[in-house]
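TL;DR need structure tokens for one chain.
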Amino acid sequence: MKSPTTENDKRNDIRIRDRVLLQYKEIDEKNYEKLVHDIEEGIICPWTECSHPYFTKRISRYLKKIKEKDENLAGALEILDQKLSLLLNLLDEEKHGYRKAFKLVRVNLSASGIAFKTPKRMSRGHKLELHIGLLPEHYFFRCYAEILRVDALSKENMNKIAARFIWITEDDQDRLIEHIFQHQVIQLRMRRKHKEMRRGKKHKD
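>> reply
TL;DR here they are.
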């Protein structure tokens, strides 16, 4: 277990509001342990069926090494990698109709957990199997989480659940952190632009 004061944990705690493609279901402890065991033993693949582990997982390791020597080259290759992943996932989506099985859901998202609304009744302490598609990258991954909190929203006839990731591959978590940082940068730029526009309007008035 990492210390809560480490830099990694600080990154993992950064939360954003986002929209993702999502599939989820509750699983019991016995099934969870069997699934994780089968993944770790190589019996089943750890990645969701519509991702491309050969391209999207292995290349991240090489990019880390390249970044140590040339950040500009690594940045350019990373953009090309993201474009390739997007094209491949869009082609797979068209061929196999993966997106039809997913719902576009508003979430609170961090590298350590997720919160979202659901009409389903769920219980604190139960396990979730999650298939998450990050947008606009169309990067899909599978992970497992434990429900920490369930809040009933009576006016909406919904439940808001907060869950902590308990199993996620290192590569997928790295991609998730990268997605969160990019999302933050866009939000900050939009807020800055909005403030500048408001100041400009006041000066004109």
